[in-house]
Structures are given as C-alpha cells and as structure tokens.
Amino acid sequence: MPKVTPYSESVSWDESELVIGVVGVAPWATLEFCKALYSYISANKDWHYPRVIIDANAKIPSRGRYFELHERDPSPYIKATILELFNSGAGVVVVPCNTAHILFDRWASESPVIIPNIIDACCDRLSYLGGEVVAVFESLNLRKSKLYESRITQRGFTYYAMADHQAKMIASFIENIKQNAVPNEECLADFNTLVDHLEQSGVDSIVIGCTELTPFINSSVRNKMKFIDSNSELARAAVIAANCRLK
Q: Which entry of 23, 121, 140, 159 is 20 to 30 Å from 150 by CA?
C-alpha cells in the first residue's frame, strides 16, 4: 500500500502521525469503533484524518465458542492479522472486542506495534471521571473471567455484581445487535429498566464492556449515570497513541 507524505504547506499533517490498524472481529462493533475513532479527530479537511487500515474479518474464530465449546483459539488469527496490518504500515493496532482481551497476552505479546488495551482504556476513563460503584455490561464469558472486576477493584472502585438473570439479559442485548445492528424496542425497554434498577441500587457508573452495545447508549440518556463506552475509550486511546489531532 502506498505511503503518502505531506506535499505542500496547505496540504500537510504531522509526519509523526501513525497509521491505525483495526482487527475487526465483529461487523457492527467494528463500524461503531470507526465512528468513535473519527469523532475524536480534530479535522476540517480530509487529510487531517489518520490513515486507517481495517481488516473486518468475521471469519476469525468466535471468542464465545472458544470459551464455551472449546473450539479454535482465536488468538493466533488475531496475532497474524496484527502482523499483516503492521506489514501494511500500521503503527498502532486495536482489537475492538472486550472478550478477546481475556486472551490479550496471547495475541499482543511481542507485537511490533502499539496495542492499546480496551480494559485499561475504560478503567483510565473511570479514574478520570470518578465515582464509587461501577456496573459492567459485559459478555457472560468476560464476566466469568472477572477481568473487569479485578481491574475496577484495583482502581479503588466498588464492582457491582449483577444477578445471573441480569447478566443473561445483557447477553440478549448483545445477540440482538449481532442480528439487527440496532436495538429493537423490547431490548431497549429492558436496557432502560435495568439502568434504572442499577441507579436505584447505588450504581453511579456503567462500563459498556461490549463493543456491540454502543447503539444502546444513544437511546438511554441519564443525567446522573456515567456511561463509559469501551468503543469510545479504545478509540480515544488509539488516537492518542497514533499522535493524531485529538479534539
């Protein structure tokens, strides 16, 4: 792929800016990540946006089926994609999938590129915003791993442990997006009911710990509840790591 450099005073950008690579393992989540990424760029011309190389490959083995059915480990495929993106010019690579980060050490170790961690990015945002009691809308496998729970408690927050039926409700929200791209009315109503219940239970912050769930946030406005969207936080981390023009 060609490398384009600034060629005049009026058409220029910081040459330290890195190319961003995206390992897209889920179609709708990948699109939501890219929307979040571009929203963080300070730009008034096309060339002010970074070069982004997207490998949207839903054929990469399912993270859920790996954990639940012991099928193929997605890690070698993610790792190989990262290397391909590096060879195509990427200096920063992201994987917009929270569940895949359970296996982060397998596919990110010894990487030739910068790889922001989505869990760390969300926890950094939590530390910045402040709060006390945090709930995470995450996949059943991520919940079982306790990855968010451990990171959140290490930061000094209280992790709100949801009941099994609430966790299964969140899993149904994720499946709804996989099938329809946007939440249907029933799921949206259940989402808002769950948020209301959590707020009444003392939760002041919610991490949207599945990149499929971003569309729900736009439909659920709360004045007091803080929402930390994992797509948005990973995008912010990528923009900073790539030396882009951050808004």
A: 23
pTM summary value: 0.94
Question: How far, in Å, CA of 106 to CA of 102, rounded?
Answer: 9
Residue range of the domain that includes 221: 119-229
Q: Indicate if 177 and 208 belong to the same structural domain.
A: yes
Determine contact, residues 202/224, Cβ cutoff 8 Å: no
Two tokens, residue 10: 């009026």
With 0-12 / 13-18 / 19 or more C-beta atoms within 10 angstroms meaning exposed / middle / buried, residue 221 is exposed
With CA atoms as reference, report the closest residue to 136 among 109, 173, 111: 173
Q: What are the structure tokens assigned to 200, written together?
A: 């009444």
In angstroms, the CA 156 to CA 87 distance is: 40
Beta strands 158-159; 133-137: pairing state: parallel
Task: Render pLDDT for 129-174 as a digit per residue (tens, 0 to 9).
Answer: 999 999 999 999 999 999 999 999 999 999 999 999 999 999 999 9
Q: Both ends of the chain: CA-CA distance in Å?
A: 28
Quote the Cα angle for 192-141-205, to 5°. Answer: 40
Q: Indicate which CATH number applies to the domain containing 212.
A: 3.40.50.1860
